[in-house]
């Protein structure tokens, strides 16, 4: 019996994109067509895989290091967005911290790394920043993906809700709510772009930690982010007309 899994959904999605591309042709780099034939500018997307290098981020109950899952998901998202014609900027695409060479202690490197990521968002003021992280909590029963948004740009909250809706319906049987980024989320507290941070799941829950290490579950997360982003861009277009 054929079980319909996330992998199948993903394969169908990829096939549909390929078929559409064959029939419609690849759209110009700066434009995207929606189902309503509206055409709009594609914003530059900055994908930020959290942590890297000396900064591993959170450690899972089974030893998963957050920075690695963040990078896996971010690279998959980059490939999907690039295939869809977006210009994608990665804050990192390998296991590195992007601190200045003058930074010495680990704390200094972390601060320098975050400042450099913030500088990158300023180079592309009209871009959309999507940061990828994984969560942990002392309560090991907590699971699910949750989206945080920058308080500095009202569009961020709207985009965050689209992503959260996709997470709630595609990967979890619960309705998590979006949250505004506080000062502890440095990049999002200061970024002025449309900026969201996806905490894709809890490494402190052993079941979710195992899932987050699989391509199938990572693809579901990427599909959710991509779908939410497309719906957000379509809504923006309707408002602009
Ligand atoms: Zn993190």
Describe the protein's architecture and organization.
With 241 residues, this protein is of the alpha/beta class. It has one domain: Aminopeptidase. The protein is built from seven helices and eight strands, in the order αβββαβαββαβαβαα. Strands 4-3-5-8-6-7 form a six-stranded mixed beta sheet. Strand 1 (31-33) and strand 2 (39-41) form a beta hairpin. Helix 2 crosses helix 7 (215-240). It is globular, with a radius of gyration of 18 Å. The N and C termini lie far apart (47 Å). Residues 10-14, 17-30 and 33-37 have low confidence and may be disordered. The chain binds zinc ion.
| Tally of structural domains | 1
Largest sheet entry: 6 strands, mixed
CATH class: Alpha Beta
Poorly predicted runs are: 10-14, 17-30, 33-37
Strand percentage? 15-25%
The tally of beta strands, per DSSP, is 8
Look at the helices and sheets and give the structural class: alpha/beta
SS field, number of helical segments: 7
Q: Strand order of the main beta sheet, please?
A: 4-3-5-8-6-7
Which radius of gyration do the C-alpha atoms yield?
Answer: 18 Å
Ions, cofactors and other ligands present here are: zinc ion
CATH architecture: 3-Layer(aba) Sandwich
């Amino acid at each position: 019996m054929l079980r319909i899994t996330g992998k199948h959904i993903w394969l169908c999605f990829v096939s549909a994109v390929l078929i559409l591309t064959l029939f419609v042709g690849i759209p110009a780099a700066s434009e995207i067509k929606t189902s309503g034939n509206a055409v709009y500018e594609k914003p530059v997307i900055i994908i930020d895989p959290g942590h890297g290098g000396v900064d591993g981020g959170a450690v899972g109950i089974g030893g998963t290091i957050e920075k690695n899952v963040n990078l896996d998901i971010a690279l998959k998202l980059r490939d999907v967005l690039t295939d869809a014609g977006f210009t994608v900027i990665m804050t990192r695409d390998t296991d590195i911290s992007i601190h200045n060479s003058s930074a010495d202690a680990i704390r200094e490197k972390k601060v320098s790394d975050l400042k450099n990521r913030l500088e990158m968002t300023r180079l592309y003021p009209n871009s959309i920043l999507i940061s990828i992280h994984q969560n942990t909590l002392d309560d090991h029963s907590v699971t699910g993906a949750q989206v945080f948004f920058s308080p500095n740009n009202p569009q961020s909250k709207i985009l965050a809700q689209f992503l959260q809706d996709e997470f709630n319906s595609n990967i979890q049987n619960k309705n998590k709510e979006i949250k505004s980024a506080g000062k502890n989320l440095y990049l999002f507290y200061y970024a002025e772009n449309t900026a969201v941070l996806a905490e894709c799941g809890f490494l402190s829950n052993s079941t979710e930690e195992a899932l987050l290490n699989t391509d199938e579950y990572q693809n579901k997360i990427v599909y959710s982010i991509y779908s939410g982003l497309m719906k957000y861009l379509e809504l923006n277009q309707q408002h602009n007309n």
